[in-house]
Automatic annotation (TrEMBL):
The lineage of its organism: Bacteria, Pseudomonadati, Pseudomonadota, Betaproteobacteria, Burkholderiales. Keywords: Signal. The keyword Signal applies. It comes from the Bacteria. Belongs to the UPF0065 (bug) family. This is Tripartite tricarboxylate transporter substrate binding protein. Residues 1-20 form the signal peptide. SUPFAM superfamilies: Periplasmic binding protein-like II. Pfam families: TctC. PANTHER family: BLR1237 PROTEIN, TRICARBOXYLATE-BINDING PROTEIN. It comes from Ramlibacter rhizophilus.
């Protein structure tokens, strides 16, 4: 039997760790790609920080249905309301970054909570991976049908002649408080803010006479407006809503330049593998380009977004800076 020379055996033995390291490195490089190809292998949870009935919940369920059809696994919406969506957002921020826990968040949860809430347990700029801007939409200045006003100017006058000069304003989230503050500052009136746990409960507060006005997301109020139970006085965007074409903008009501859209985004925990994020973005891009989906969104007053994650990250940072200025001007302190 031929024996290997001792020198050759020594070289071979010394080479084995290097060969093993190269093999492990190749496996490690291949693992994310393999995970992305297989993803999703089990149901995916989409967390919403509000109760059912609001825009974030409506959008999350629309996306879940479409993602399930495209990716072949169940996408399950879980409502985790509380603390202006901070509870749900924090849950996702601390979740395993594997693509199986996602977040549908309002712009408020990502951009006004850091301004208005002390000791926020998550950092919107550091704890999440932006996947897609799902939609932008106006807020609607809404009052009960019984309130004796027909437009925003009349609401301002009614507020000034009210018993204490302030109407009770129902609000489901911190971002809506700041939008309302920009409105009242422009109009020279003030509101008493009454906090609810979501848009659905806020609508019920309006219908039940607990509050006289609410600045709410269009999908949450359109059914009640169409039923004649609520009145829409103005929208907060520069252009009229496609779902409410007869409702003027705040700018048209005499406050030139007023334009504050609200938005909703799909996010993942920081550290989610890029191949998984890419697969999700590709699927969401197809959904947002789908004509039937776009038609459904327009009917709700939503403008479809996009999957430009860098632009979404910048939007989050820019909006935080904007709301800090608004809060400072309104002398609103974090609580």
């Amino acid at each position: 039997m031929t024996r290997q020379p001792r020198f050759a055996r020594r070289v071979l033995l010394r080479s084995l760790p290097a060969v093993a390291a190269l093999a492990l490195g190749a496996v490690a490089l291949h693992a994310p790609q393999a995970a992305a190809q297989a993803y999703p292998e089990k149901p995916v949870k989409i967390v919403v920080g509000f109760p059912p009935g609001g825009t974030n919940d409506i959008l999350a369920r629309l996306m879940a249905e479409q993602l399930q059809a495209k990716l072949g696994q169940a996408f399950v919406v879980e409502n985790k309301p509380g603390a202006a969506s901070a509870i749900g957002n924090d849950l996702v921020a601390k979740a395993q970054p594997d693509g199986y826990t996602l977040l549908v968040s309002s712009s408020g949860g990502l951009t006004t909570n850091p301004v208005l809430m002390k000791n926020l347990p998550y950092n919107p700029e550091k704890d999440f991976e932006p996947i897609a801007l799902l939609a932008t939409f106006p807020l609607v200045v809404t009052v009960p049908a019984s309130l004796p006003v027909k437009n925003f100017k009349e609401l301002v006058q009614f507020s000034k002649t009210h018993k204490d000069g302030r109407l009770d304003h129902g609000t489901p989230t911190t971002s809506f408080v700041l939008v309302a503050e920009t409105l009242t500052e422009a109009a020279g009136v003030r509101f008493n803010h009454v906090q609810y746990k979501g848009s659905g409960p806020t609508v019920m507060g309006l219908l039940g006479g607990e509050t006289q006005v609410a600045v709410l997301d269009s999908p949450a109020v359109i059914p009640q407006i169409q039923a004649g139970k609520l009145k829409a006085l103005a929208v907060t965007t520069a252009k009229r809503s496609s779902a409410l074409p007869d409702v003027p903008t705040v700018a048209e009501a005499g406050y030139a330049g007023y334009d504050i859209p609200i938005w909703t985004a799909l996010m993942a925990p920081k550290g989610t593998p890029e191949p998984v994020l890419t697969k999700l973005r590709t699927a969401v891009r197809d959904i947002l380009d789908d004509k039937d989906t776009v038609a459904k969104m327009h009917k709700l007053g939503l403008e479809p977004g996009d999957t430009d994650s860098a632009a979404l990250a910048k939007r989050i940072s820019d909006d935080i800076a904007r709301w800090k200025r608004v809060a400072k001007q309104a002398n609103i302190q974090p609580q």
